[in-house]
Every structure is written in structure tokens, then in C-alpha cells.
Amino acid sequence: MSKNKTLVSVKVIKGDINRALKKFKRGIMESGHLLELRERKYYTKPTTIRRKQKQEAVREQYKKTILEKIAEGNTKVSLPTKKRKKKKTSKPQNKNKSEKN
Predict the structure, then answer these.
(1) Coil/strand/helix, residue 15
(2) What is the domain range of residue 15?
(3) Contact (Cβ atoms closer than 8 angstroms) between residue 80 and residue 63
(4) Cβ neighbours of residue 31 under 8 Å, at least 6 residues apart?
(5) Model confidence over 17-66: pLDDT tens digits?
(6) Is residue 101 a part of any domain in this protein?
(7) Which residues contact 8 (CB under 8 A, 6 or more apart)?
């Protein structure tokens, strides 16, 4: 764990373990221990981290420019959405099989 994070501790008052657990979970979420644990679960190469950050920055910048154009009154510009998958058409059955039966 990181050196900057403080350890989370909770006192059980009057034997109320549920309340203590609730406080403990909240404390862990706020301190960032759980997030760091999830990040460290798998190793991510530094180049992969940088690539994802760059992709996210490009995406955000693109979104920002599109929204600015829309705010200026350009009605032809719209945000891209996910492409819909084309439905697969069923293949026609072989005519030879139907003629033999």
C-alpha cells in the first residue's frame, strides 16, 4: 500500500459489529485502499497506462470540441454513437434437398 494512506481502524461500541463494519467499509473507500488494491491486482505496463491516458485525453478533447460547436449553433455536428450490429440474414435452404424429399 502507499505510504501516504492512513490505516483505517474502528472501535466496536456496545458490541454492535454491524455498525463498526459499516464505518470500516466507508473508511476504506474514502482512504483509497480498496481502489489501490484493485489497481495492483494485475500488473499493467507503464506504456499501456500512458496509451490509455492518451486515448482518454483525445476522446475528451474531441467531445469538448463537438459540444462547443453544438453550443455555437452548428446543427450538423453530433456526437458519434456506437454502431449497431447488422442482423444476420438466414441463408436460403438448398433447393436440391427439398426436391428429393
Answers:
(1) coil
(2) 7-42
(3) no
(4) 5, 6, 8
(5) 999 999 999 999 999 888 888 989 999 999 999 999 999 999 999 999 98
(6) no
(7) 24, 27, 28, 31, 33
